Amino acid sequence: MNMNNESNDPSGFDENEEQMIRDSFSKLDKRLGITAYTPDHLKKSFEKKLLLATAKRSLFATWRGLWASILAAFSIGVLLTRFAMMPATIATRGGPESGVGAPDSPSRIVSIATGNPEEFAFKVISLALNAEMEVTSQKSGEKIVLYIKPFKQGSAEQASIKLALGLDSEAAGSISAIITKDPKK
């Protein structure tokens, strides 16, 4: 006779309690769609998915991923801006008669005062372009600076521009012409 009111059942539940537990598990299996024919590996796979879905991610892993993505975006941005802002250079090569590719002689400076500097500069630029010369212009207030090259000695095409700038026919190299407004005109 058992005096301590202990049952010989190692589970600690009586028959009614065990039946209720079995019924609740079978109802849960029916809700989840698990039948007696479902293979064990599918049941285990499902249980793993449930555990992974409820597992919490560590804060360290999410912050580390955030910083990695920010660093990657910044690095790509730096590379793109370096390529976008890279200066473009165009090199041309000409024969000995063109004067391109030859070393420039020191530039001569010519100062001209006229009543209408813009009109005179336009005239000089059009004469230089007709003679197939390179012209760069800058304007600062009433002053216009033209950088013209290459002048050749004794060139018939460049005679009119040399005359307009007051140069002799033997002028060669590059010329900087500073055109200002004449206060008397």
List the helices and strands and how they pair.
Blueprint: H1 15-32, H2 40-54, H3 59-84, E1 108-114, H4 117-130, E2 134-140, E3 143-151, H5 159-165, E4 173-181
Parallel strand pairs: 1-4
Antiparallel strand pairs: 2-3, 3-4
Structure, described:
By secondary structure, the chain is an alpha+beta fold. It has a 4-stranded mixed β-sheet, covered by helices on one side. It is built from 5 helices and 4 strands; from the N terminus they run H-H-H-E-H-E-E-H-E. The chain is rod-shaped and about 130 Å long. The longest helix is centred in the middle third of the chain and has 26 residues, at 59-84. The model is unreliable at 98-102 (pLDDT under 50). It folds into 2 domains: 15-83, no CATH class; 108-181, no CATH class. The chain starts with 14 loop residues before the first helix and ends with a strand.
